[in-house]
Amino acid sequence: MRLALYLTIILGIAQAQFACPTFSCGKIKNQNGEKKCVEVNDKGDHFTTQHCDKDEFCSASLWKNPSQATADAYCYKRHEMKSINFTVPGDYCNNTVECFGKQGEVDCIKNKCTLTTDSPYCDLGPNKHQMCNVNQYCMNKVCVPAKKEGQICRGRYECEFGLQCYAKGPLFSKFKCYPPHKLGDDYEFDTSMMTNGYDNFLGYDSVCESHYSVINEDYPTRRICRKGDRSEEQDTNKLRQREGIGGFCNYYTYNDPSAPGSPVKVKDYSKCGFNRDSSAWCSLRRGDNSFTKVLEQIKKIDWNDINCHVYSNIYGCDEFSKIDKDLMKKFEKLMKQTDNSFGSPVVANNDKCVAETITSSFWQGDSPNSADYLSLTLASVLVVVLYMT
Question: Helix 325-337 to helix 289-298 angle, to the nearest 10 degrees?
Fold first, then answer.
């Protein structure tokens, strides 16, 4: 009996030591002109969060994970940034000064940056291609038609909207314009002429059918398409929470050096986030059903049907309205959640004001309490956590 009691106490202490800190909405009593947006309690295990004014931002938004939350955070004035000479042809505008180009050659017409000349002079160093019209690029100070699928290219800027410029293995001899998601598992490609584009929707991973690739360690400019890592447990109905980190979150990787391309089991553990309770969560992975189901919808997009500038902000291009923006936002969130530098545990159970301050770069104004959030969370973000009891 006494031994059982001692074990209970020891386990309780160990659990408390590894409990995740909690983050929730509340009222902070600021004094002496302070403007705290996050306040930590004396124990350092709970953070009260409240809004900043509209013209301010919370310094806690710079935190990447709870380990960086070691002190109070404050509101600071947000520097107003005006979009002057920045918006490319075809994108939304309110005033001509916003549009990229020379005075007299560009105008904001019906809220769209529009070139007023058929032959603009394009020689402004690295930004010269932004002076050309949709599906054009600058060559020898003249705007010329962009390359179509299968044509030789020297960079994404030479290709029509939605295409990337890379060279296929095994020869890697010719860089050509290709649409996304065309290479299968184990195919290799050279990224020397590639850049992440369209708010990173069409980055390196977009070359692969799986939307996942790894670097060839022997040739750093080359990448190999692989199946995405896949969690061992896919049944979200068996989701369990536990006080603190350390729960098992095993998964399978297809990039183990001992068996590249074959599934190899890897041990992983649950992690803390900026969440309402002290539970820890498993990470969402690129091979999980929740990601692959949305990816299949993304693959159905006909990029040839979208007439935007190669340097367009996709949400600012009218033509992009042909695509379900809610679908794109969901995919954008899933890419962040499956990025090891970010991770889904960070946003697994955010309170509303936390989503508007600490993790605002992820939510971008969307509410974590919305129906869309719940469907995303319960079906995907909160990947099942199996714990050994």
Answer: 140
CA separation for the pair 311, 199 (Å, rounded)? 10
DSSP 8-state symbol, 352? H
The 10 Å Cβ neighbour count of residue 211 is: 26
Helix (H) or strand (E) segment spanning residue 7 = helix 2-17
pLDDT digits (tens, 9 = 90+) for 6-32: 333 333 333 333 789 999 999 998 777
Q: Is the pLDDT of residue 254 over 90?
A: yes
- The gap between the terminal CA atoms of the chain, to the nearest Å, is 20
Same domain for 294 and 222: yes
Instruction: Judge if 187 and 216 occupy the same domain.
Output: yes
Domain stop point among 92, 118, 145: 145
pTM score? 0.81
* Selection from 60, 36, 66, 68 nearest residue 356 by Cα: 60
Question: CA torsion angle for 250, 254, 259, 263 (degrees, to 10)?
Answer: 50
211-218 LR contacts (CB < 8 Å, sep 24+): 211/181, 211/286, 211/295, 211/298, 212/286, 212/287, 213/189, 214/255, 216/188
Q: Please check whether residue 78 lies inside any domain of the structure.
A: no
Q: Which residue range(s) make up the domain with 304?
A: 155-226+289-322
Dist. CA 164–CA 375, nearest whole Å: 32
Closest to 115 measured CA to CA, from 145, 88, 81, 147: 88
Say whether both 169 and 213 belong to one domain.
yes
Which residues lie closer than 8 Å to 18 by C-beta, 6 or more apart?
244, 245, 246
Based on the fold, state whether residues 121 and 212 are members of the same structural domain: no
Q: What is the pLDDT of residues 180-208, one digit of tens each?
A: 999 999 999 999 988 765 555 778 999 99
Least Cα distance to 225 among 287, 152, 267 occurs for 287
The residue assigned the tokens 């990173």 is 200
Residue 74 to residue 30: CA distance in whole angstroms: 10
Do 160 and 221 lie in one domain? The reply is: yes
Tokens of 308: 């935007």
